[in-house]
Design brief:
Layout lengths: L1 H34 L1 E7 L1 E16 L3 E4 L5 E6 L6 E2 L4 E5 L2 H36 L5 H34 L1 E3 L4 E3 L9 E2 L7 E4 L3 E9 H8 L9 E6 L7 E8 L9 E9 L10 E18 L3 E4 L2 E7 L5 E12 L2 E6 L6 E3 L12 E5 L13 H4 L2 H4 L5
Helix pairs in contact: 2-3
């Protein structure tokens, strides 16, 4: 009896032990499945893209005038409001013109006298001609009267030239704008004497267009822009200091005729036309210029890229949903997306949010999403151009 009881007890103990040993194993598997993180993953995009090059510059006005007087005098009146828009021919400064009026009047009187003397000389020359025909006057006297006539003619011409110059000086006492633009403040005020060709009265800059000069290195020019000319009006976009968007569109209208041998660069000019007076000469700006060549590149979200010391990497989804470490080379930035030049294949599936919560070798629970590229311009094609100014942002 005791032997049977002992055998039953041993059997029950064994079954209990086996049950206990199997239960933790099943729980461990369930816990591992529950601990897998749900990670957004997506197939990489393949897009036709152009490389973008960024240059810094300062805006220049196509026309700029340091206004100086053509005659010396005293400022009698200032006829403009400082900082306003002016037009060609607008009166800006008025000088005291009384000395100039006196010179004009004096020369006019001298011309009248010279005309009277000329009339007399003409009459005497005609009389000398008749008398010479009758041999009633010597040849020497006749030539003298002819010479006197020529002198009177020359004197009248000289006085008329002086009067023209005096009238110009009188006209120059009204100092007018030579260009359309924005006028600065008056450097010299009413009542002050100014010197012809020396005193800077104010400055005027045109504002209907702005130039942006920048230098492209020889290697980049030869690889990306060698086939363009100024007549192609290659498009560019511009960002002003303090702005996040490249909201101004322009085009290249000038390419220099030689490479600068000292710097190895080529001087290029872009022009920006605008009628809202938002661009100021001297402003710092950044120019983005797209290369002509269009290539297909793999595109991923910028946040999918991690940095490991000097390397950039992307986490891809491998067998059994285990993340893999892939070294990549970066291309251009397009809004929130980044071009990859090497390291990924078109069939790769990546962790969209990068190594923020996961790392290589970790199993994950993938959540399939799509990379959103709506509204981002990858080229300067007509379809992309409409959204270019709103979507191109600088991320260098």
């Amino acid at each position: 009896m005791n032997k049977h009881l002992i055998a039953v007890a041993i059997t029950l103990a064994s079954l209990t032990f086996l049950g206990c040993s199997e239960e933790p194993s099943q729980n461990t598997q369930q816990q591992q499945q529950q601990q897998l993180q749900s990670i957004d993953v997506a197939e990489v995009l393949v897009k036709s893209v152009q490389n973008w090059h960024t240059y810094t510059t300062r805006l220049e006005a196509p026309q700029q005038v340091a206004l100086k007087p053509r005659v010396s005098g005293v400022i009698e009146h200032i006829a403009f409001n400082e900082g306003e828009q002016i037009k060609t021919g607008d009166l800006l400064f008025k000088l005291d013109d009384r000395p100039f009026l006196a010179i004009v009047a004096s020369l006019a009187a001298q011309i009248n006298s010279a005309k009277a003397a000329l009339d007399q000389a003409q009459s005497e020359e005609k009389r000398a001609t008749r008398l010479t025909e009758r041999k009633a006057i010597s040849t020497e006297q006749a030539e003298s009267r002819t010479s006197t006539l020529r002198q009177r003619e020359a004197q009248l011409a000289a006085l008329q030239a002086q009067l023209t110059a005096a009238q110009l000086d009188l006209e120059f006492t009204s100092i007018r704008s030579p260009i359309d633009g924005i006028i600065s403040r008056a450097n010299i005020t009413k009542g002050n004497n100014i010197l012809a060709g020396q005193s800077v009265l104010t400055t005027i800059v045109s504002n209907q267009a702005m130039f942006a000069y920048f230098d492209i290195d020889e290697r980049t020019w030869n690889s990306d822009f060698a086939n363009i000319s100024a007549t192609d009006q290659q498009q560019v976009v511009m960002q002003k200091l303090g702005q996040s968007e490249f909201s101004y569109k322009g085009y290249i209208d000038f390419i220099d005729n030689q490479i600068n041998s000292s710097t190895g660069t080529l001087r290029v000019r872009a022009v920006f036309n605008e009628d809202k007076n938002q661009l100021r000469a001297g402003s710092f700006a950044r120019i983005k210029l797209a290369a002509n060549a269009v290539n297909e590149k793999i595109i991923v979200p910028a946040r999918a890229i991690g940095t490991d010391l000097k390397n950039n990497f992307v986490l891809t989804v491998g067998e059994n949903n285990i993340l893999q470490y892939k070294l990549v080379q970066l291309g251009e930035r397009y809004g929130s997306l980044q071009a990859i030049t090497s390291g990924l294949k078109v069939t790769d599936i990546i962790a969209v949010n990068g190594p923020a919560r996961v790392g290589p070798g970790m199993p994950i629970a993938p959540n399939n999403v799509k990379i959103d590229s709506a509204g981002i311009a990858f080229t300067l094609s007509p379809d992309a151009d409409a959204s270019l100014t709103a979507k191109l942002t600088s991320k260098e």
